[in-house]
Write a structure and sequence with these properties.
It is a single chain. By secondary structure, the chain is an alpha/beta fold. It folds into 2 domains: 136 residues, 3-Layer(aba) Sandwich (Rossmann fold); 66 residues, Winged helix-like DNA-binding domain superfamily/Winged helix DNA-binding domain (Arc Repressor Mutant, subunit A, Orthogonal Bundle), CATH 1.10.10.10. It has a 5-stranded parallel β-sheet, sandwiched between helices. α4 crosses α6, α7 packs across α9 and α7 packs across α10. The longest helix has 15 residues. The chain is globular and about 50 Å long.
Length: 218
């Protein structure tokens, strides 16, 4: 996070809420440019012109013209490096799991404390994922007992499982390297292999895969 400002786009059709979040973000000393869009369609149009590009999109689910779900699909197709944090009042576990499978990096409720929003942004930049404890419990509970058949077609090495377990514990690449006494580039290689082997879109998807296939228990 040092010496690097994070550019953010807020996508929500409720202007008062959007302005409130923008005002809150201005108080964070690591935030750079703040963009605003009212719908998923406006977000896509904004991304075509934004300079510099946002690092993170805070995205509501329920919006006119193009909702957060459709916007996530289109954004991830065209801008795969843009990280998405869903900011919503929707706490249905199936919706949360579906959004993770679509590639979102975080999921936060609109009634979260400002400190949690700050923590979510920092974690998504550093670790590629953030889910509050209550959301994590909901996801893990939903996945319990729902073992996937995907594991039969995927062969992970013992070292890859070690790396996967640390990813599930929300270790950064540097922390994984230190824990396993390997280089950061080696860690990045393992993470890339894990994404390819499991068909996951990002670290959040890897966590879902790991618990669905009972590879780790935390």
């Amino acid at each position: 996070m040092k010496n690097r400002e994070i550019n953010i786009v807020i996508t929500d059709d409720h202007k008062l809420f959007s302005k409130g979040i923008a005002s809150l973000l201005e108080d964070f000393d690591f935030i750079g440019n703040i963009y605003e869009a009212g719908t998923g369609l406006e977000l896509l149009n904004l991304l075509e012109q934004a300079e510099p590009m946002p690092d993170i999109a805070l995205l509501d689910l329920q919006m006119p013209e193009m909702d957060g779900m459709e916007a996530t699909i289109k954004v991830k197709e065209k801008y795969p490096n843009l990280k998405i944090i869903i900011l919503t009042m929707q706490d249905d576990e199936q919706i949360i799991l579906h959004m993770i499978q679509l590639g979102v990096n975080g999921y936060l409720m609109k009634n979260a404390d400002p400190d949690e929003l700050e923590n979510a942004i920092k974690n998504v930049i550093a670790k590629d994922l953030y889910f509050p404890e209550d959301i994590s419990r909901l996801v893990y509970s939903s996945l319990s007992g729902k073992k996937s058949n995907a594991l039969k077609d995927t062969s992970l090495t013992n070292r890859e499982v070690d790396v996967l377990e640390l990813i599930c514990k929300e270790y950064t690449a540097n922390e994984i390297a230190e824990e396993l006494n390997i280089g950061r580039r080696t860690v990045e290689g393992y993470r890339k292999n894990l994404l390819e082997k499991t068909g996951s879109k990002n670290m959040a998807g890897l966590v879902v895969y790991a618990f669905k296939n009972e590879l780790v228990k935390i």
